[in-house]
Amino acid sequence: MAKKISVLLVDDHSLVRRGFRRMLEDEPDMDVVARKLHPKVIVMDCALPGMNGLEATRRILDDSPEIGVLMLSMHSESTWVRQAVDAGAKGYVLKNALDLELGFAIRKVAAGETVFDPQVGQNSPLKGERDSLTPRELEVLQMIVDGKSNKEIAAVLDLSANTIAVHRANIMNALGIHKTAELVVYAIRAGLVNVP
């Protein structure tokens, strides 16, 4: 039998936690566990008192980058979704979704995939950004992530290094990022590039 997906629920409302726990107890391939048991997936409330879920996500992933975090939130605005992605969350699901497919979302995150609530789908930072980059910019972004310099990218694409520098600047402006290292991390997390 396949190993069960271990899930940690982080929510400051015990009623909500109990509700989610009930939902997950019906899933034969999932176990709700405690933090010290190193869960595969953490279902994180975005609005925790004291330290918010975004900050908690950052700290957890600094410590255990292999854990998948699924963010639960009341907010469908793209700024929240983007902050969650920037913090390293693999998914973003709205708490008030009537057809909340928590099991489905957890399985996707456990498999290393990203999952976004359909209601934030149109605001999903990933979709918008993929659409805001031209195919050429996505191609350049892939090579930046692969560690190529402007000169090397220019040689591959038969363009001038200046043209590549302009593409790089346009990509960073479109994504609101100013450092190459941040760009690389963001592009990988957001699934904008292929990682070998």
What is the strand and helix layout of this fold?
Layout: E1 5-10, H1 14-25, E2 30-32, E3 41-45, H2 53-63, E4 68-73, H3 78-87, E5 91-94, H4 102-110, E6 115-116, H5 118-121, H6 125-132, H7 135-145, H8 150-157, H9 161-175, H10 180-189
Description:
The chain is of the alpha/beta class and 196 residues long. It has helices at 14-25, 53-63, 78-87, 102-110, 118-121, 125-132, 135-145, 150-157, 161-175, 180-189; strands at 5-10, 30-32, 41-45, 68-73, 91-94, 115-116. A six-stranded parallel sheet has the order 2-1-3-4-5-6, sandwiched between helices.
Largest sheet: 6 strands, parallel
Low-confidence stretches: none
What share of the residues does DSSP label as strand, in percent?
Answer: 5-15%
| Helicity, as a percent range | 40-55%
Radius of gyration: 19 Å
The termini sit apart by 30 Å
Work out the number of β strands. 6
Order the strands across the largest sheet as they lie in space. Answer: 2-1-3-4-5-6
Summarize, please.
The chain has 196 residues and is an alpha/beta fold.
Describe the structure using short key phrases.
single chain; 196 residues; alpha/beta; six-stranded parallel beta sheet; 6 strands; elongated
